[in-house]
Amino acid sequence: MSVLPALLRDIRACTLCAPHLPHGPRPVLQASETARLLIAGQAPGRKVHESGIPFDDASGERLRDWLGLDRDTFYDPARVAIVPMGFCYPGKGKSGDLPPLPECAPAWQAKLAPHLRGIRLTLAVGQYAQAWHLPDARSLTEAVAAWRAHWPQLLALPHPSPRNNLWLKRNPWFERELVPALRERVAQALAE
User: Is there a smaller number of Cβ atoms within 10 Å at the N or the C end of the chain?
Assistant: First the structure.
């Protein structure tokens, strides 16, 4: 019998970081033992905190485009797991959202990972997910540029936020070379 449903209930009821969350806890994730694709993000933004739906914002639109997935497939937990480094919105900082709170990933990631046995491809989206999944990478650009190093099981991606438009403009190879290969690999992983 699976313990994942109980673990997901525990995560969604977590208040570990409550004293540090200006908008209160509202853990947002989706996962299933049958999921083939794992999107390891950073932390929910304000819009996601309000809706309770992962990547329910402009970043999600861009990410779905990069992956070549429609909303129904993206939000099907039987196919796609979305597990950020921080499950709750950490609040706003001087130049965007604050980073994921440091208590969250150590408390939950190791407990959750063994139950995601069906994963064929992990996407480390943004610097905080990359620090967890690719701890030897020196920078986000280096991790993304070295995409073939962990292919086809793990891939580093920049955060799809509109705030990263300058990075995308400076790195045109990303959308020219990596995105087509990513779409093909995502389709393959979901079909396995």
Answer: N
